Amino acid sequence: MQGLFVVFRKELCDHFSSYRFVILFGLIAMVSFITSYMAGVHMKENLEALSKTRFSFLMLFSTPGALFSMVQFVSFFGPLIGLVLGFDSINRERAQGTLIKLVSQPIYRDAVINGKFLAGVATISILLVSIVLVISGFGLALVGVVPGIEEIWRLFIYLIISIFYISLWLGVSILFSILFKSIATSSLASVALWIFLSFFVTLGAEVAANAIAPMDRKKETKPEILIKNTRIKERVSLSSPMVLYSKATEIIINPMRKTTGSIVMMMPMEQILSSRFQNPLPLGQSVIIVFPHMTALIAITLICFAISYLVFIKQEIRT
Q1: Which of 175, 214, 257, 264 could potentially form a cystine with 308 if both were Cys, beta carbons 3.0 to 4.6 Å apart?
Q2: How confident is the model at residue 66 (pLDDT cuts 50, 70, 90)?
Q3: What values do phi and psi take at 62, rounded to 5?
Q4: What does the pLDDT average to over 158-180?
Q5: Domain boundary assignment for the chain
Q6: Is 85:50 a contact under the CB 8 Å cutoff?
């Protein structure tokens, strides 16, 4: 594809040289480091209990600091990285008049949109890998815990899921940058959609569950009503990318979690066996559990970019 590497290199240089990226990266890195440092100090104070834990290195990422863990922080505020990188990627070129000059060169139009998206994905990947490596260094220096092979693989899968999760919001911001000529409008639309899908969907799921399967707080709720209410809430909440990402990363980072559901019905014999054999899940089993969530995240990301691609290809550049 002619001109793809040129656009990719130019966008990558713009991302790393912009003040907004440096400020955002510094803010996210600072909060992640402080959270992980507090988790490491807490682990250092409980070395006796830590020695009995099989996957102690992963606790650096899953143990809450003052407010939340590193995984929870990426879940809530990671989309801001994608939104910041792409909300003005196309309309800024239109406003400055550089988009017409760009396509007048021997560069195909699809190379422009592909190069911008790939540069954003590369920036996100470098940012996440850097943060994970620095936090791992904190763990080695503070606690002296060396990661095992399975822990390294789990962190690798966590990085892949996180890259697709943030790239989803990069695709959303690029789409709004194509649809709206105003930079302010595209940024506000991107943030509004992020707030709605990340926070209001879970509230709407609770309202829908209580409307379909209402629970009486004054009386003891029947088990079948409670199960129906919970299942409706979980299924509606899965329309939020943040819920998909949170459930997937919880299973990958915490091997002791064996299901993404909040309620598990067990027979008496199953309860006895579960209490006696509290072993972590193997990596393969964890991947099988979160495979639907991973597939959904990847599919949504690709669909969102495909829509951006089609709209940009069919759009008149001179308007």
Answers
A1: 175
A2: low
A3: -105, -15
A4: 93
A5: 4-314
A6: no
